[in-house]
Specification:
It contains 19 helices and 19 strands. It has 647 residues and is of the alpha+beta class. The chain binds one DNA strand of 8 nucleotides through helix 3, helix 5 and helix 14. GO terms for molecular function: DNA binding; DNA topoisomerase type I (single strand cut, ATP-independent) activity.
Length: 647
Amino acid sequence: MRVLCVAEKPSISKAVAGHLSGGSVQTHNTRNQYIKNYSFDFDFGQSLGQCAVTMTCVAGHLTHIEFTSEYKNWSYPPPDSLFNAPIVTSIHDDKKSMAKNLADQAKHARVLIIWTDCDREGEHIGQEIVDAARKGNSSIQVKRARFSNVERAHVLSAARRLVNLDEKQVDAVSTRIELDLRIGYAFTRFMTNSLRPLGGAMENLTLSYGSCQFPTLGFVVDRYFRVKNFVPEQFWSIKLLHNRDGKKVNFSWARSRLFDRMTTIIIYERCLAAKTAKITNVQEKPTRKFKPLPLTTVELQKAATRLLRMNGQQAMTIAEETDRFDKGMNLKALVQKQTPDQRWGQFAQSLVNGAFSQPREGRHDDKAHPPIHPITYAAPSVLNSDEGRLYEYVVRRFLACCSEDAIGMATNIDLQYGSEAFSAHGVIVLERNYLDVFVYEKWDNTAELPKFTRGETFQPTEALMTEGKTTPPDYLTEADLIALMDANGIGTDATMAEHIQKIQDREYVATIDRGGQTAEDVDDAHTEAQPTRGGRGRGRGRGGRGRRDSGTSGGRRGGIRVFVPTQLGVALILGYDRMDFDISLSKPFLRKEMELKMRAICEGQTTREVVLRESINQYRRVFMQTQERLDVLRAACREFVFAQPHR
DNA sequence: GCAAGGTC
C-alpha cells in the first residue's frame, strides 16, 4: 500500500522522513525550490501495515480567501457590502507548484497522513492539504499524526497511533480568516475613503483597520495618555537607618508612604519620642532564586528587545535560522555540545559532570512547538554580531534551565519604633548555580544584614522624615508591548512583531530613543514623525496603577526604544473612543471575544455558521454607527493632525 | 491599495 505524508514545513518533513525511514530514503526535487519528496518504506502497524511512503510538505497555508472581482473597487459597491460579499478560496501563484505536487503524489496513494503542527492553524493547513490532494485522488483516505516534537520515539509512536483531522478546529480557523478579511477590508476602505478628503498629510495615507493592529495601537495610545495626563502627587515617608558592624541597614516603613503631611509628622514625632527601637522578630529561612523557564518565542522576543537591543522581528528572523526541538530529546547530549566554548564551556562541563538538573515546566504548552534551545554548537566565528548575541542568549538560557536554582539564606528583621513597624530584608547567596552562566540576572539587590537579636533595643543611628513625588509610568518598550499583546491574546508569537511593524508603517506610531528624557524632550526630539503634542481625553491622571515613586525612576536607561503614537494614531483611537459605542474597536476585548468564540467552536458549543452570522451582524452594526458618526472621527483628525503649531 | 495567519 502507498501512503502520502504531508508536513507543514520542510524541516518537519525532513525530520519525520529521517525517523520513519531509519535512514534509507530517496530524495526527489519538486518544481518548488523549497519542497522535496522523500520516499521510503515504513511499517505503520495495525490497519495500514507495511507501506511505501512518500513524505512531502507545504510551506504554511496553501490557500487564501479573497473577494470576487466585482468587489475590487474601493468605493463601489460601498465597503459595507463586504460584510456579505461572496468570497472565493484560491491558491496563490507561488503555492501552485506545491498543490500540484500534492495532487500528483495523491494519485498513487491510498492514504493521506497529515503531519502539520498540532495547533489550530495546523489543523486548517491540514484541511487545505486534503483539498489539494483530492484534486488528484478524490477517494484518498485521510488520517492525521498527532505529535508535539520531532524526537524519534515520539514520531514513531505518532505514526502508529493515527487519529482523524479535527473539523471543529478547521472551522474555528476558517471563521477567523473570514471575519478578519471582511472586517479588515471594510473598515480599511471606509476609513481611507472618508478621511483622505481632509487633504494635506492625510491625502496619501492608507488608513487600515485590523483586529490585531488596532488594539496594538490602542495600547500605545493608552500609555501615552497615562504619561501625558499624569499628575504627580506628593508623599511623605519615614526613613530609618542603623549602623552596625560596619554595615548600614535600611529599615523600611510598614506603611511605605502617606499622602498626608500632617499625619506623617505626628507619627514621626511619636517615633522620635520613643527614642529606642525594639527588634520584634528575626527570621532566617532558606530561599532560592528560580532558574529561568525554558524559552518560548514570546520570551525570546522580549529578551531580545530588553537585553540585546534588537527588535522583535530581527530576533525572530535570526531565531528562525536555528530550529526548535523538544525536551523529549537527550538534553545532556545538547549540554555536552556546548563544552568547547570559551565563555560557557566550563559551566556546561560541570553540568555534564553531575550538576545537570531537569528544566522546570512552564504553563505554556502549545502542543506544537517545544521550547527554543540550541541544537548544535556554533563557534563565535560562524555567526555575525546579532546572530552571535542571540545565540549566546539562547545557549546561556538553555544551560541555566539545565542547572540548579540559586540558593541563599533570607533574613527578615522586624522592628518596632514608637507606634510604627519597620522591617529589613537581606539575603546571603550560598550557591550561585545557574547565575554563573545566566549573566542577564543578578541576585545582589539585597544586602547581607548584620546580626540582630529578638527583643534587643537600641537607639537608631538616623530617623528622617522624607518627602517625594510620584512619577509617571514610562512609555511602552517593545518588550512591554509584546507582553501586553501576549496577555490580551493579540496576534500569535509569530505575528506580534509584524503587527508592531504594521502600525509603524501606517504612521500610527513612531519609536524614539528614551535616554532619560522628559515627555517634552520626546516631543521636541521627534517632530518629523509628529508624535502627539497637547493631547487630552483619556488617561487615568492622578493615581492609578501606573504610578511610581520617584525613588524608583532610575530605570530609564539610555538607548532603549519606546513607542509613542503619532498625531494620526491618537486621532484614530480618540475618534473611535469618542463615538462611545458599546463595542470598542481600539481595545483588546473584541479580539478576546473572537478567541473565545473560536474555542467554543472547537469544543462543539457553537458552529462556524452561527459565529459568522453573529459576528458579522455585530461588526456591521458598529460599521453603520461609524458611518453615521463620521464627523466625530473627522473632527479628531482635524484636531490632532492639522491643528499643530509647526504645520 | 486593504486583514491575520502560516512559512521560505
